[in-house]
Amino acid sequence: MSNKKRNIKAIYPLTPMQEGMLFHSLKDPDSGVYVEQLTARLRGPLNVDAFRRAWQLVVQRHSVLRTAFSWKSLDRMMQVELRQVDLPMTYEDWRHLSSAEQDARFRARLQSDRAQGFNPAKAPLMRIHLIRMGEEEHRLIWSNHHILMDGWSLPVIMREVFMA
Predict the structure, then answer these.
(1) Which residue of 9, 65, 110, 146 could cross-link 59, Cys pair, CB 3.0 to 4.6 Å?
(2) How confident is residue 154, by pLDDT bands cut at 50, 70 and 90?
(3) Cis before residue 45, ω within 30 degrees of 0?
(4) Helix %, strand %, coil % for the chain, to 5?
């Protein structure tokens, strides 16, 4: 059995809402219509390694955050829960930039991240950008595909990250 097959934990049908989102995402992949972005300003000391581990723990805890979608050569669209995924997280230090340059670059990063979109067949359908703006100030960009969760789930995930 291949490593890829060993990493599959379960396969489920999509909900009707997920089917619609996947259909529209595949029909117009450059639209960014289902790319959700949450931004936050984090003040105070931050252990970046611990922050990364907290996010990874939450991904391991919630199967939907390890889910990819399959539709090619199938009669029905399916979601594939993986045992393990590595959450993409980038870290940049912008302390050397003026606040105007930081703001401009942050807005550009939001746009480019949204334009990047997600490949529904490749989990995880989320990514993190952490940007150091000052000695004790960071900006967070958490992007995810809306097919994973609704607005009720976002605060649950954020609370778990900050409690981990």
Answers:
(1) 65
(2) confident
(3) no
(4) 40, 30, 35
